[in-house]
Amino acid sequence: MTTVVDSPAGNDVPPRRPSSSSDPLRFLAGYNATNSARVMAEFTRAAGTAWIDTLSRRAGPVDLATRGLLWWNAMRDRRVPQWHQPNEIVLSTPFAHLRDFTAEAHRSDEVVPTLVLPPQAGHSSTVVDFSPAQSQISVIRAAGLTRVYALEWRPATATTRHVTITDYLDMIDRSIRRMGGRANLIGDCQGGWLAAIYASLHPERVHTLTLAGAPIDFHAGESVIAASTIALTRAFGLAPYRALVALGGGNMPGRAVLGNFIGIQPQSEVSRQLQLLENIHDDGHVERYRVFEDWFKYTQDIPGAFYLWLVENLFWRNLLISGKLTVDGRRADMAAITSPLFLLAGSTDHITPPAQVFAAADAVSTPREHITQRTAQGGHLGLFMGRDALREDWPPLLEAIYEHSVQRPDPTSNGAGATKRKRAATKAVSAPRDTPRVPAP
């Protein structure tokens, strides 16, 4: 569904305050009870399936042991996630790389360059180039936005534990200047609020702004992350978060972030492992499982200073949506943003509920006819690497961005060019097949 916002609101509009933030303990109790029931239901389903399969195949002890060994080996066989589309590093710092995915034949294309800011939550940035068949980068290029770059957030180390929000914003600015001084900015999840802050401080550098699954109003919607953060900070302030960073030697451990994500939706983890056992002889299912697990279970630490800043200013105090956020003495007011705005949310996103994303529409000064809101069917990670979102939801958004990004339309196309680009973007991702999906958070 695509919606054009009717009226942008001013800064005096208060942020939405739903039940998960107004009564966090009650929300968390109900949420955890529901999850526990779902985990038990998944075990019951899997046990029934295994029993029926054992009887139908007349599996003996050796067969069951072999099956279990294959399952165990598949769970333990992890590999480092990789970039799949050809690219080169054109700018580098100890905490980030700028990767250029522009093909040689397209370097002189007269189209505004595009910069992708991936999520940054303890995982590899390769989620935007998840696999050869599921790549956000490929879809962007196929839509005609051929000059495309992505920032890669590097794992934090002892020497980068003091990296701050200022350093990240400076890296974005250096990247855009190197790309020509103005860019289409696409921010996924945490990359989205980072993009919004940058656009607030440097609106002249942002040609269009796209936020996908990005928390802008951190307290809106029914969010377990917002509820748990509010509950913890009300009771202990930042002490629990500082303790985690101290245990990580000055950085937020990626393993702790992963554990938190699994704890938010444990039924997905249980279902993924049980479905692997059920489909252990299905090579296609095992491969899909492996590709996802390689990315999901490969974690990287986050700079401690940066992590504590975002917890205090965004997760806890929710200063971005209120217009009260300051960075190095400068006010990061989203009302300064006037560029075309594209918002994409997942209908069942439990990490970033749609209300957190769509709150951006009321905070910017973009003309209402240039604000697009779209809701994809699915959850959080599917927005960035899911075949359905890449085939159905990203192409129309990217097609509109392309129309904003060329000097003039082709007078001979009579609209055919846009249709062709949409088809090309769709073909950039493999078609969903009638096979069991790997459950993802």
From TrEMBL:
Pfam families: DUF3141 (PF11339). This is DUF3141 domain-containing protein. Gene3D superfamilies: alpha/beta hydrolase. It comes from the Bacteria. PANTHER family: POLY(3-HYDROXYALKANOATE) POLYMERASE SUBUNIT PHAC (PTHR36837:SF2). Residues 1-25, 405-441 are annotated as: Disordered.
